[in-house]
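Anyone? Bumping this.
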Amino acid sequence: MLAARASSRTIQRVARNFATVVDSAGIKVAAVDNNQPTTSVTFLIKAGSRFEHKAGVAHGLKNFAFKSSAKRTALGTVRESEIYGGVLSASLSREHLALTAEFLRGDEQYFVDVLASFVTSGRFTRHEYAEYVAPVVESEIEESKFNPGFQAIEAAHAVAFHNGLGSSLLASPHNSITHEDIRSFAQSAFTRDNIAVLGTGIDQATLASLVEQSLSKISATSQMSSSASSYFGGETRLPAHGGPQTVFVGFGSAGTPTPGIAALSAYLSPTPSVKWSKGSSPIAATIPEGTTVEVVHLSYSDASLFGLLVQGPSGSAVKEAGKAAVQALKTVSNGLKGDDLKKALSKAKFTAASAVDSREGLVSILGSKVLSGHESSLDTTLASFDKVSEIAFAKAASTLVKVKPVFVAVGDVATLPYADELGL
Amino acid sequence: MPLGLTLAPKVLASKTLTSWVTPVAHWYANLAGYRKYGLKYDDLVIEEYEDALHRLTPREQYDRAYRMKRASHASVLHNVLPKEEWTTPQEDVRFLTPHVNEVEKEDKEREMWDTVFVSRK
């Protein structure tokens, strides 16, 4: 009985939709509709911190989102969106600025217009910068000071990639950004070839026609530039207090990220598959109680950074955990055999596939592919994992750890270990 | 209207009216006497809109405070400023009025949203 029902369910399962990309008057539009009860529309703009001409303008621009435009004031945007019951948000990564509206089905005309009017006619007034934007920028900087993990990864990017990808997501505490700087950054970023529009829970044709209407006047070519990333590596130590003692050990590489590294990070990740259990990762078993190791794998369009974020209550505990983690990484980088590799690959596949399930994951994965012009599909991503052989994995992993590492210590720098003490 | 009723936009729209009214306007502004104290017309606006004052650039805020100090000092001395310190018609620009109008518009909009009645079409 049960078996019969299960089999009928698999037959009835609807083939999964996946976004196809169309060019709508030069703007790339991708939409996927899986009959969600709500719709989201994201304008993904290549205006991340790696493109900024003055440090911190990308952070300023993120917080300027949905302020007054030629069509409506900041207050009008907030109140009208509340009446429609929608949520507006902006988020910034090193490569992209995402302006997102989430709303009930049927309200797409209004919300696409809100997003488009900010992009085409944002006013960037001086008083709004002083009254709304600067205080938020300041508080986000202040907040980051109490997050040593974030600080470590920011510092690691600066050490690993110097300029471009190395520039910080946040403005510096004593910046000299003005509304004029932000306006000129926005003008150079908000152009036809720089924007991708991604929708979930909305029909592709509807979204494309709305985008075409609302972004018809936008200028065509951008003057944004960022030099190709190159990897350097190095060591830095930042004194901090209040948070856990933190060490980040990273290995970066220029060029497109490979599936082998994703498999490596999936294999090493000590996060257990079953809650409250100890995972079977080689790191999980060897680190001392109270310390945590997080595997970080950040991939960008032309570089990637893989690393281990080690946190613990004291410098000595972090040293012990770091040593164990580095040892595990070195062992694994010699290669994985048989079942271990299969486990690593299926874990990596699941991570890649489940990321597409959430809205943010879908947007970040799909968006970067849409902007770079690749045809996007989950199947190609998953298929690339099937091609990873034992030899390919060993090669990818051993070239990764051969480069000069990034080493960042954040916290009590007197007790935190140095790179050589961890066996790097 | 925060700054009182005005026919200025209507007058400025017509070329003939502008050419008639301009000499009278200059005569009136000079007669009003504030220029002899080194003030600008917008310094006389009642400080009803604090937000508008905050929107001036730091330089404008400083200059405004300086003009007021200088004028009140002249008032204490029961005398106008020396002629070279008088405000010239070219200097007498409306630096605050645009901000006041903007703040007024925003306040109106806030009131509108606070009291708006929404109906689904």
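Late reply, but here is one note on the structure posted above: Residues 17 and 36 of chain B are 27 Å apart (CA to CA).
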